[in-house]
Design a protein that fits this description.
The complex is a heterodimer of chains A (about 120) and B (about 120). By secondary structure, chain A is mostly beta strands. Helices cover about 0% and strands about 50% of the residues of chain A. In chain A, a hairpin with a 6-residue loop joins strand 4 and strand 5. The radius of gyration of chain A is 13 Å and the shape is globular. Chain B is mainly β and about 120 residues long. In chain B, strand 8 and strand 9 form a beta hairpin. The N and C termini of chain B lie far apart (about 40 Å). The model of chain B has no long low-confidence stretch (mean pLDDT about 95). Classes of the chains: A mainly beta (about 120), B mainly beta (about 120). The interface between A and B is medium-sized, with 22 and 22 residues.
Chain lengths: ~120, ~120
């Protein structure tokens, strides 16, 4: 079956620094998304990663804080910039596989702790 | 506006008992999709089921079953003969067809504890 991988799986970072999270899939996808899951909370959509163009951000999320790239159909990155302890969360990418609209599958997540 | 409500924040049952997780949704769209995901302690989100709004047939997969009732806007999930490995957070979610962007709105989740 198709695989979604994320790197790193976890990290501990100091406030004020930035971390880039990678999402790689091994099959073609139509859509890629980035979510944040704060401790004990549900998932919140950060943005839709658009191939070759700027991501589409949800209300409350901005490009300066969460720059996203998607250079091709199978790869995307999310950067968490100028981190603060409030950014401590699990960050998950999700994809919609080609030919399977309306079904999202999630990567294993990146557990980020900001000290 | 779309909304998903999981009123049960946390449930504990003894192993081998049956348990039902409730999900109520709101949408103005006539075509929509409902989902259940499982998030075990490892953190990964596991896709369990997708149901479209035109298919009200209940579904059974092993010990899992889903009861979709449009009349009450509910999509409940039952685990039969629960096992300790079923302990996880379960999320119900909704996607509207008219958005055409595959976006999903999640409920707040129900944390299920299966006690040995």
């Amino acid at each position: 079956s198709a695989v979604i991988s994320q790197k790193p799986s976890r990290d501990i970072c100091q406030r004020g620094t930035s971390l880039t999270i990678q999402c790689q899939v091994d099959s073609q996808v139509t859509m890629m998304f980035w979510y944040r899951q704060q401790p004990g909370q549900s998932l919140t959509l950060i943005a839709t990663a658009n191939q070759g163009s700027e991501a589409t951000y949800e209300s409350g999320f901005v490009i300066d804080k969460f720059p996203i790239s998607r250079p091709n159909l199978t790869f995307s990155t999310l950067t968490v910039s100028n981190m603060s302890p409030e950014d401590s969360s699990i960050y998950l990418c999700s994809v919609v596989w080609l030919g399977q609209s309306n079904e999202q599958y999630f990567g294993p997540g990146t557990r980020l702790t900001v000290t | 506006a779309q909304k998903v409500t999981q009123a049960q924040t946390e449930i504990s049952v003894v192993e081998k008992e049956d348990v039902t997780l409730d999900c109520v949704y709101e949408t103005r769209d006539t075509t929509y999709y409902l989902f259940w995901y499982k998030q075990p302690p490892s953190g990964e989100l596991v896709f369990l089921i997708r149901r479209n709004s035109f298919d009200e047939q209940n579904e059974i997969s092993g010990r899992y079953s889903w009861n979709f009732q449009k009349s009450t806007s509910s999509f409940n999930f039952t685990i039969t003969a629960s096992q300790v490995v079923d302990s996880a957070v379960y999320f119900c979610a909704l996607s509207e067809e008219e958005n055409r962007d595959d976006k999903i709105i999640f409920g707040k989740g129900t944390r299920l504890h299966i006690l040995p």
